[in-house]
């Protein structure tokens, strides 16, 4: 005998989309409701019916929503405050844009399926009804396969965009220490978004950490989505007894032989459920906005986020290092009770990006930029300059996926690769400013970090095998950032480069002229640099050159994938 699961609802469901819709039904009958609001409520009701039909009926679907999605509240927040509704209402009355972006690695990108089937696109499709309220919905999937927690988090705005209302960065089952570093980096940005986490809603160290940052006023109404809890009541049922939306729970949709069908990635039905759960939560927020409009009342604003950060919870202060400010921030005073977190600027070679492409900062020293990224490039290429390329395993994967039009994926873990024969890679980091005012680099740049690609098996050691000239002066201190958050499969990725005391800022035109002069000396003929737009921009010139004969193309070239800096 098969016993089907039975469900009952708790008071938590009194604030879901179904409950709010029932309140609307009585209000709409007794008020002079504008047509656009009636239209929105009709579309919202259709969405609720679809959700119920997919997941076993209204009671089953609401119970699924209740056990699978949690919003963390602080003890001092008003019981009726709703940060999601408040963000929707602010967007409606101001920019007219409600913006969401989701970052992380292969699970978020949708590997194992088609890219368009990943949950961010499910959300975008389901919430088209927000346009009826005058909102333009912007949803971006900025995930990159083969990436770790850092340096991705430092460069997050370039992958995901800025001025976000809802955001998540999902790197799988990361450690609580890494999660804390992510929280602190994201919370440092102005108008920090509502964060979404794919995790267990049961008590855990990660959930306690999130709650601590909610109680400290750093996070407001973060959302946890628990896909395991969603499926748990049905785990022992036969396939034909499952609700339609849960059938094929462990099946990927990509063609046979396609990569990414591994346990750490989400299957098609898991992506769809994630999208539905998040959409129903956002829909409830939009319905609360409509309810306030019908009542001619104002929404209760959520508590303001703190302008400072609390002491890091999981940081062992006896082991603070030069990496600490980049991950956790710096104490404001000797008491160590209040901390501040700087925001970083980034130039990255990875795709997809909104802004901040590493190649836009390159002023010289590259070769073969026009060659197809999937075309193999050997020592002959690298002997002419630094070459934009993919790590060998990723190139093979992308070549395999080409037969299916890449399954729609647009992410590439690119980097510039170089050997001693490549010569110097010339980079210019602009800051703007007046050329008539001489400035030292240290007055404008506080920290400089250079990161390599995630390629495995290369022979290069950035700390030992590379010379870095900063502002015309050789950097004598180039040290690994020693923290497992800044690694990929155990490989260290980034070095902290001291900015020499005598290093200077120059114009972009001057930085390019240095490259031209070097080419003239090499070719033994005169070349004149024509000045163009932006040539007078002030900034920091950096030259990176492989100096060790130990580094060869066969053993694995050096690579540069990201440059991160902290302005003063």
Question: If you had to describe this structure to a student in words, what would you say it looks like?
Answer:
It is a single chain. The protein is α+β, with helices and mostly antiparallel strands. It is 29% helix and 18% strand. It contains 16 helices and 25 strands. The strands form six sheets. The chain has a six-stranded mixed beta sheet with strand order 1-6-5-4-2-3. Strands 11, 14, 16, 17, 22 and 23 form a six-stranded antiparallel beta sheet that branches. Strands 10-25-15-21-18 form a five-stranded antiparallel beta sheet. The radius of gyration is 26 Å and the shape is globular. The termini are far apart.
Q: In brief, what are we looking at here?
A:
The chain is of the alpha+beta class and 568 residues long.
Attribute tags:
globular; alpha+beta; 568 residues; six-stranded mixed beta sheet; single chain
The N- and C-terminal alpha carbons lie at a distance of 70 Å
Spans of at least 5 consecutive residues whose pLDDT stays below 50 are: 529-533
Strand content: 15-25%
DSSP helix fraction: 25-40%
Global mean pLDDT: 90
Structural class: alpha+beta
Q: Taking Cα atoms only, what radius of gyration do you get, to the nearest Å?
A: 26 Å
**Quaternary organization:** single chain
- Based on Cα principal axes, name the global outline: globular
Strand line-up of the largest beta sheet: 1-6-5-4-2-3
Largest sheet: 6 strands, mixed
How many helical elements?
A: 16
What's the total number of strands? 25
């Amino acid at each position: 005998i098969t016993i089907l699961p039975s469900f009952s609802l708790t008071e938590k469901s009194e604030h879901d989309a179904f409950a709010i819709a029932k309140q609307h039904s009585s209000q709409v009958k007794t008020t002079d409701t504008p047509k656009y609001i009636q239209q929105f409520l009709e579309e919202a009701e259709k969405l609720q019916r679809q959700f119920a039909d997919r997941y076993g009926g209204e009671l089953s679907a609401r119970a699924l929503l209740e056990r699978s999605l949690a919003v963390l509240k602080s003890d001092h927040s008003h019981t009726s405050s709703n940060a999601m509704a408040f963000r929707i209402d602010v967007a409606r009355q101001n920019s007219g844009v409600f913006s969401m972006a989701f970052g992380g690695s292969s699970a978020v990108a949708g590997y194992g399926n088609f890219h368009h089937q990943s949950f961010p696109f499910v959300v975008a499709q389901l919430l088209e009804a927000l346009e009826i309220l005058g909102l333009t919905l912007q949803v971006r999937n900025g995930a990159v396969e083969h990436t770790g927690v850092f340096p991705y988090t430092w460069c997050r705005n370039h992958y995901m965009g800025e001025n976000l209302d809802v955001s998540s960065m999902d790197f799988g089952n990361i450690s609580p220490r890494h999660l804390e570093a992510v929280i602190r980096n994201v919370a440092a940005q102005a108008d920090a978004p509502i964060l979404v986490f794919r995790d267990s809603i049961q008590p855990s160290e990660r959930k306690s950490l999130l709650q601590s940052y909610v109680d400290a006023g750093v996070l407001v109404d973060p959302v946890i989505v628990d896909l395991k809890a969603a499926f748990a009541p049905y785990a022992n049922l036969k396939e034909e007894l499952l609700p339609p939306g849960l059938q094929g729970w462990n099946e990927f949709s990509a063609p046979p032989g396609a990569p990414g069908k591994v346990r750490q990635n989400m299957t098609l039905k898991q992506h769809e459920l994630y999208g539905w759960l998040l959409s129903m939560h956002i829909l409830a927020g939009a319905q609360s906005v409509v309810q306030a409009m019908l009542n001619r009342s104002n929404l209760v604003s959520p508590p303001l986020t703190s302008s400072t950060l609390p002491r890091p919870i999981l940081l062992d202060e006896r082991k603070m290092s030069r990496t600490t400010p980049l991950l956790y921030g710096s104490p404001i005073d000797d008491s160590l009770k209040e901390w501040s977190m700087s925001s970083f600027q980034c130039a990255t070679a990875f795709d997809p990006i909104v802004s901040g492409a590493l190649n836009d900062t390159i002023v010289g020293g590259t070769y073969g930029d026009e060659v197809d990224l999937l075309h193999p490039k050997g020592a002959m290429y690298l002997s002419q300059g630094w070459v934009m390329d993919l790590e060998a395993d990723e190139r093979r994967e992308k070549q395999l996926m080409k037969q299916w039009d890449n399954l729609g994926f647009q992410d590439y873990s690119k980097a510039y690769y170089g050997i001693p024969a490549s010569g110097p890679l010339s980079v210019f980091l602009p800051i703007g400013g007046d050329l008539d005012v001489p400035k030292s680099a240290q007055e404008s740049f506080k920290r400089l970090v250079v990161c390599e690609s995630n390629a495995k098996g290369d022979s290069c050691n950035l700390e030992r095998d590379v010379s870095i000239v900063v502002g015309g002066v050789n950097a004598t201190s180039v040290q690994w950032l020693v923290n497992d958050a800044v690694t990929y499969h155990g490989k260290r990725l980034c070095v902290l480069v001291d900015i020499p005391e005598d290093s200077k800022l120059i114009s972009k035109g001057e930085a390019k002229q240095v490259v031209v002069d070097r080419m003239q000396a090499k070719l033994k003929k005169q070349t004149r640099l024509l000045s163009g737009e932006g040539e007078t921009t002030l900034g920091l010139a950096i030259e990176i050159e492989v100096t060790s004969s130990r580094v060869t193309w066969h053993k694995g070239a050096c690579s540069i994938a990201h440059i991160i800096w902290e302005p003063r």
